[in-house]
Amino acid sequence: MAEKFPMTPAGNAWMRxxxxxxxxxxxxxxxxxxxxxxxxxxxxxxxDYSAAKEEQGMIEAKIREFEAKLALSEVIDPTSLSGDTxxxxxxxxxxxxxxxxxxxxxxxxxxxxxxxKGKISISAPVARALIGKSVGDAVVVTTPKGKREYEVVEVxxxxxxxxxxxxPAA
Length: 170
Description:
This protein is of the alpha/beta class. 36% of the residues lie in helices and 23% in strands. Mean pLDDT is 91; it is low at 166-170.
């Protein structure tokens, strides 16, 4: 069975808008750019044509990626969840065992992640370490600076904001 792509309702809406823009705006604009570049003569030495064809490939690849992810998406609304066990969609407050510093993260789909907004991908090491943990549990995360220990302080189920608030890692 194919892998499911978990995403929040806001992330799903964002991806659908991006797909529509790629199909309705970017693809036609690129087709016009290719036609214009073709009119400039010899295609083997035509930098405009080469650039437009390369852009066409990137647009088509992104369209295929978004269509596949949407087809396999599992939309999970965090506001419909409850409990104190961390899973996809949870907003988790953790405390560094050494410094006592607290951090708050919402676990979202890969294309929704934005560290500036406190949204981490379900596949990020911190998220993977937190999944299945409950309030009061200790979590050890391997970071570039070595192993860090955190305690799960709070698990909340909040509405996740729109990824359009800033450009996600898509």
